[in-house]
Amino acid sequence: MKITIVGTGYVGLVSGACFAEVGVDVTCVDIDQAKIDRLLAGQIPIYEPGLDSLVKRNVEAGRLHFVTDLRQVLDQSEVVFCAVGTPPDEDGSADLRYVLDVARTFGQNINHYTLLVTKSTVPVGTSRLVKKAIYEELAHRGVDIPFEVASNPEFLKEGAAIKDFMSPDRVVIGIESQRARRVMERLYRPFLLNNFRVIFMDIASAEMTKYAANAMLATRISFMNDIANLCDAVGADVNQVRKGIGSDARIGSKFLYPGCGYGGSCFPKDVKALIHTGATNSCPMRVIEAVEAVNESQKSRPIKILKQELRDLKGKNIAIWGLAFKPETDDMRCAPSLVVIDALVKAGATVKVYDPVAMDECKRRLGDIVTYSRDMYDTVVDADAVVMLTEWKQFRLPSWNVVARAMRGNLIVDGRNIYQPDELEEAGLRYRGIGIRSSK
């Protein structure tokens, strides 16, 4: 089976490599010639554990190809996946220009029945716009070539994307006919053989499922952050609260970990897009609006703690552990670190940072407004406070005695609640978490 995936970003490249791994002949298309050249040379443009070897293996096996022109591969393709970006506009809506560009190119060049599957995250109703664009191009050509559209939203977690694709919780597919269903069943047969759930539904429901899933997860995070902040105010321990409510089978324990807010390419963008879709359809998303407001406020929580403990931040040396929005990625889109660093610099503090993989990305974004360290311990030398923002494994069990000796001050702000306060206090350090206070 031969398929084409348009877009070699996070979703497109991971999807293409994983489909190739189960025996599908995959061609990935991107208009960026330099990017394609790097991929052909074995250079992966994103950080994702295991992706480089997966791409290399399937390129060498002849199952994974890279080109810059969709037109040259349409004649050989049974299925075309659209995995281009849908960045947010200023009003929060998803920008569909790249999705519609793919639809128009598809309509201008298909010569046999082909299924166009939207894998990009798009608002409900996008399939109608895609079909309209294709029909217009076919009419302009004066031809009547059969085609269909479908929706196959992705549910990949950065840092675990390959596992998520190869062993999915579920595969959601929106279709309009039995013919399209048969095509997608054939493509996903390797996953059906392993008894993974492939859920077929109408296209509008598939489009909505993606947004609803991310909004629900974001809601749990913001809810727990609100609870954590209240725990700070009343003297409760949010970790104990989390265990207490998570033991209820109706609630469960996942995504109940408070911290300094979520970031990345999905939750912030999808929450905004869902709010915009609600407003456009005179159906305000009041809960989701609150979720977004709580999250934006939560990113400043470490700054509030620093001001409570240090008073004036001017002239203070602040060490930052973790820049990426989550572990196992170099992605800093909407990361809490950007908010924290911006506030510290504006307050007159000196900021020293370290992240295992996101240093280059930070340099690209922030330049020389911060000092870049060679390792986590170099970061804390002469620091008045250390702020941990990304729970990388190497940050989980530091030598607190080494940290205490290197610091000028003694404050540790745990933005992800991964440390034990008594261990820090034994080393002479002061601990502040999110909803967890020092025992002293």
Please tell me about this protein's structure.
The mean pLDDT is 94. This protein is elongated. The strands form 3 sheets. Strands 3-2-1-4-5-6 form a 6-stranded parallel beta sheet, sandwiched between helices. Strands 11-10-9-12-13-14 form a 6-stranded parallel beta sheet. A two-stranded parallel ribbon has the order 7-8. It has 18 helices and 14 strands. The chain is α/β, with parallel strands linked by helices. It folds into 3 domains: 2-201, 3-Layer(aba) Sandwich (Rossmann fold), CATH 3.40.50.720; 211-297, NAD(P)-binding Rossmann-like Domain (Rossmann fold), CATH 3.40.50.720; 299-432, NAD(P)-binding Rossmann-like Domain (Rossmann fold, 3-Layer(aba) Sandwich). Helix 9 crosses helix 11.
Find the count of extended strands (DSSP E, 2+ residues): 14
Shape: elongated
Sequence of strands across the biggest β-sheet:
3-2-1-4-5-6
Structural class: alpha/beta
Strand content: 5-15%
Question: How is this fold's topology laid out?
Answer:
Blueprint: E1 2-6, H1 10-21, E2 25-29, H2 33-40, H3 51-60, E3 64-67, E4 79-82, H4 97-109, E5 114-118, H5 126-141, E6 147-151, H6 161-166, E7 171-174, H7 178-187, H8 189-193, E8 198-201, H9 203-234, H10 238-246, H11 267-280, H12 286-298, H13 301-310, E9 317-321, H14 336-346, E10 350-354, H15 359-366, E11 371-372, H16 376-379, E12 385-388, H17 400-406, E13 411-414, H18 421-426, E14 430-432
Helix pairs in contact: 1-3, 4-5, 9-11, 9-12, 11-12
